Amino acid sequence: MGLILYTGQGCSLCDQAETLLEEVDKSAASMLKKVDVRANSDLYHLYGARIPVLYREDIHSELPWPFDFFQLGEFLR
Fold this sequence. Notes:
Blueprint: E1 3-7, H1 12-24, H2 26-30, E2 33-36, H3 41-47, E3 53-56, E4 61-64, H4 69-76
Parallel strand pairs: 1-2
Antiparallel strand pairs: 1-3, 3-4
């Protein structure tokens, strides 16, 4: 399972999302790819106002913030 965290520099909510991911599934957190949406104008237009957004590459699904422990666990199943 490939996971991407769409994030931005200095985003405290993104830090919270990453911490929650580590609590729910350390192995998934270790494979996490973080992408700064400000580095790409297309990504910025898609995610800039919604970060953090967790994306699963295998099922092409997004989990936008805010999410909790339970929602994240279900998303990772």
